[in-house]
UniProtKB/TrEMBL annotation:
NCBIfam families named among the record's database cross-references: hi_GC_TIGR00026
UniProt xrefs under InterPro entries: F420H2_quin_Rdtase, Split_barrel_FMN-bd
Swiss-Prot/TrEMBL catalytic activity: oxidized coenzyme F420-(gamma-L-Glu)(n) + a quinol + H(+) = reduced coenzyme F420-(gamma-L-Glu)(n) + a quinone
UniProt GO molecular function: coenzyme F420 binding; oxidoreductase activity
SUPFAM superfamilies tied to this protein: FMN-binding split barrel
GO CC terms: plasma membrane
A Pfam match: F420H2_quin_red
Family: Belongs to the F420H(2)-dependent quinone reductase family.
Protein name: Deazaflavin-dependent oxidoreductase (Nitroreductase family)
Length: 134
């Protein structure tokens, strides 16, 4: 099973042929710019389509802190996304209170553990919308 750095490398090498389909769900690669280092960081994340955009969940496995990639997006919402062999620039935003319940439901249908992660932390877990920049 692919995970972490190996997952990113295989996904990039194969245009998503390896790594897009993962544990019964689908994964994209999100590249953010480090808020302190300025370096690019690429993270594999479970996603769902949302119209022309994509949603991902900043769960960090239910930890008390947001994942680094989400903190990076708060500092700079410009990112790069790879879905299979399609690479594009995107602008990230946190789902609104009105949008979140429907998006959360779509994400927990494909990865039910998100509900468990939310139970482990007092922090509201954000849903992030990645909107392609044209």
């Amino acid at each position: 099973m692919l995970y972490g750095k190996e997952h990113v490398e295989r996904y990039q090498q194969t245009g998503g042929a390896e790594g897009h389909d993962w544990n019964g769900t689908t994964v994209l690669l999100l590249t953010t710019r480090g808020r302190r280092s300025g370096r690019p960081y690429t993270t594999p994340l479970i996603y769902q389509r949302y119209g022309d955009a994509y949603t991902v969940v900043a769960s960090n496995g239910g930890a008390t802190e947001h994942p680094d990639w989400y903190a990076n997006l708060l500092a700079d919402p410009e990112a790069e996304v790879q879905v299979k062999d399609k690479l594009f620039k995107a602008r990230a935003r946190t789902a609104t209170d009105e949008e979140k319940p429907g998006m959360w439901g779509a994400m927990t249908r494909v990865w039910p553990d998100y509900d468990n992660y939310q139970q482990k932390t007092d922090r509201p877990i954000p849903v992030v919308v990645l909107e392609p920049v044209t």
